[in-house]
Amino acid sequence: MHFPSPNSVAATLALNTLHSITAPPNPSNGCGNALRSGLAPGGASANFTLHSAQGGGERRYLVHLPAHFSPQNDRPAPMIIVLHAFTQTTASMEEVTGFSNADTNTDYVAVYPEGINNVWLGDPGAPNSSVIDDRPFIADLLNALDSTLCIDTSRIYTTGFSNGGGLSGLLACYPPTSSRIAAFSGVSAAYYTSGSLGYSLFEPEGCKPGNLPRRIPFLDIHGDSDSVIAYDGDNSAFDIDENGIPDPDTLAIPEWLGDWAARNGCPANVTVNTFIETGDVVNATTVLQNGTIAKTTWTCGGSSEVVTGYYVKGLGHGWPSTVPLSDEWLETFRWGPTTWNASAVLMEWFSRWSLPRGE
Questions:
Q1: Which of 23, 179, 198, 344 is the most buried if burial means most Cβ atoms within 10 Å?
Q2: Residue 108's domain spans which residues?
């Protein structure tokens, strides 16, 4: 079987990204304003701060404008909020995902918020929501970006790695952001149980996105060889400390996706299972090889892939990409480069979704 090169797969996905959304854009309030100092389409990313009264006070974030962004700041562009892992920097997350690289992305504004001490709500090592709540910070960040950049407010998306993927999930559960973000995703994401956190955030008792007039799309990518956040949620064999205490448990990925299918009213009997290898669909009975993905999708309300899971054979704890990483820890734990790029897959999937007018 012939497999296309990773670059040709990414190019095809990018083309799909450009043409999949046909609804007219919904311009933000910042359209037509002069660009902030330090920002230029296709140029270097720039750091900014904002004050979030409910989200921990002074907060930082990194912004990258893609090559196709209007220099006059007058053409609405889609936007991705990209959330780093536990203790990871925004610069590292920028490198890992490639969303600021013109070879990967020429159309989406990429914004990289920074957690306080580089940690997000939803990890057992982070302060609980009564101390620092990152969800209102992201809501305040959306307000700041709305007022300064020309964004298509119907096409805002989130993704995150590990702890950041968990926060992406929490934003889908939080009405002030679930109502403003068109689709959500996580890569090697950590959705901790109430037993691990001491209170419920990710289970149905804590995840209440509100009574929205639409379904909430969610995509998850996870490896079968993840030795930090296990696919089945049982992390008891990982990183047992000097007191004999293992890593805390997370929700099993099928449980997390099944909860979203239930929230969205997706009938369980329309689950579709396929295997995908480097962009080519192969028979579901094919023996799995390195780079093969088991893809599960839920279709509901006439829309396919509303909830989607990629279960990746041979992927450790990491962001799938064809590019070697400069961070030795990140490269080691993901088990090296893959034959495909998660960022291209995410952008293709994001391109399916936009908020309905008036939301």
A1: 344
A2: 6-215+317-350
